[in-house]
Structures are given as structure tokens and as C-alpha cells.
Design a protein that fits this description.
mainly alpha; about 230 residues; about 0% strand; about 80% helix
């Protein structure tokens, strides 16, 4: 296990270094998210939303931005021969998938550090209730984890396909619809003014979704990458 953790850390550091040297994933997701919020700001007649509509706009925008990131996440491995080189190393394939998932999760969290304040400023007329900020952050973190795990798995499946950009959304969107629905139910009451307490079952469902896909990703990642 210690060797596996060391492999994950090395591969994750490589992902961060690659993104720092040639930024592709994070700037793309950030520009898309801010642009979408600006479009919603001027596209909605009153320019202000709250509750379920606000949660839907935030999470659907996050999902679409993540699809852009998933498409680029495995590009270097496939286009530059990195995946073939990795198969020659003693590292487990699950370590590569775990590193990709953690990298995408960190990119999504960094995205939301900027995107959520911009969302609140542009679209929440009453602003975000200060007491609801920690719970909104927790909901976003859980949602990002589910997107990252699913995205790493889908990206590994689609990496060798010629039409990778088309296959990623076709595989990822159906898998992530339940996640977005659960996260929306959990976050929507917190985006009202004043904020209301969400039902605990939605948070439990969100955590269970993340747990199930973590187990699935762990179970099948070796076979997907090796094949």
C-alpha cells in the first residue's frame, strides 16, 4: 500500500507540473464557467435566481466545465505515448486512475474558489447567506469528488478512442445526472434568502454515490488501463 500511495503522489505531482507548465484544463474550465454565468445573468429577465434554479445553474455549469477537463485529462497519455510508457513501469494502473481523479478533483476545487463567488455576485440577488457558506462548500466538495471519480474512469475508457471528445460526454453525462440531481437537492435550500436546512437524505445519497463510484473505479481501473 505504501508503494501504491507513493506512485499516486508521484503521478499527481506530474499532473500538477504539467498543468503549471502548459495550462490547459483549469483555464478552459474557468473561462467556460464565468462565461456561462455572464450569459445566464443577461439571459434571465430579472437577472437574479435563488433556490433550485440557482443550484441547477451552478451544478450544470460545473458539469459542463468538467467535461471539458475530462477530455483533456488523458490527452497527454494517449497523444504523446505516455500510456504505453506507463504500462512498462511496475506501477499499478489503479494508481494512474487515482492520480487522474485527484488531479481533476483539485482542478474543480480550484475552479470553484473563483467560480462560486462570481456566481453569487452575478446571479444571487440577495447574495449568499453567511451561515450557509460552509454547507454549500461541503456540497460542492462532495459533488466535485463524484465528478472527478467518474471523470477519471470515463476518461480512461475513452482515452484510446478516435472520437474521444464525443465519447466522453456520451458516457459521463448519464452517469453524472443522478449526482447533479442529488447535489442540487442538497444545495438548493441553502441558496434561498434566508437559507433553509436541507433534508439529510440528499446528503446521504450524495455521499453514497461518491462511495459507490470510488469502489467501482478501484475495481475496474486495472483492467481498463492495461487493455
Amino acid at each position: 500500500m505504501s508503494a501504491w500511495v507513493a506512485d499516486v503522489r508521484t503521478l499527481l505531482a506530474l499532473e500538477w507540473r504539467r498543468e503549471r507548465r502548459a495550462p490547459q484544463v483549469l483555464p478552459t474550465m474557468l473561462l467556460f464557467s464565468i462565461g456561462a454565468f455572464v450569459l445566464f445573468r443577461f439571459g434571465l429577465q430579472d437577472g437574479s435566481i435563488a433556490g433550485p434554479l440557482a443550484a441547477g445553474v451552478l451544478l450544470v455549469t460545473t458539469l459542463l466545465a468538467a467535461l471539458l477537463g475530462i477530455g483533456r485529462l488523458w490527452a497527454a497519455e494517449e497523444d504523446e505515448g505516455g500510456l504505453d510508457a506507463f504500462r512498462l513501469t511496475p506501477a499499478a494502473a489503479s494508481a494512474l486512475v487515482a492520480a487522474k481523479g485527484l488531479a481533476l478533483w483539485s482542478f474543480l476545487l480550484a475552479l470553484h474558489v473563483v467560480a462560486v463567488p462570481a456566481f453569487a455576485f452575478l446571479l444571487l440577488g440577495e447574495g449568499l447567506d453567511a451561515s450557509a457558506i460552509p454547507r454549500v462548500a461541503a456540497g460542492v466538495v462532495l459533488c466535485d469528488l463524484g465528478i472527478a471519480v467518474t471523470g477519471a474512469l470515463v476518461g480512461a475508457i475513452a482515452a484510446a478512442a478516435r472520437s474521444r471528445e464525443l465519447l466522453v460526454p456520451l458516457l459521463a453525462v448519464p452517469l453524472l445526472i443522478p449526482l447533479v440531481a442529488l447535489a442540487s437537492e442538497a444545495i438548493a435550500p441553502l441558496l434561498l434568502s434566508p437559507a433553509e436546512d436541507p433534508e439529510g437524505r440528499w446528503w446521504l445519497g450524495l455521499a453514497l454515490y461518491d462511495g459507490v463510484f470510488l469502489l467501482v473505479c478501484w475495481a475496474v481501473s486495472d483492467g481498463i488501463v492495461e487493455d
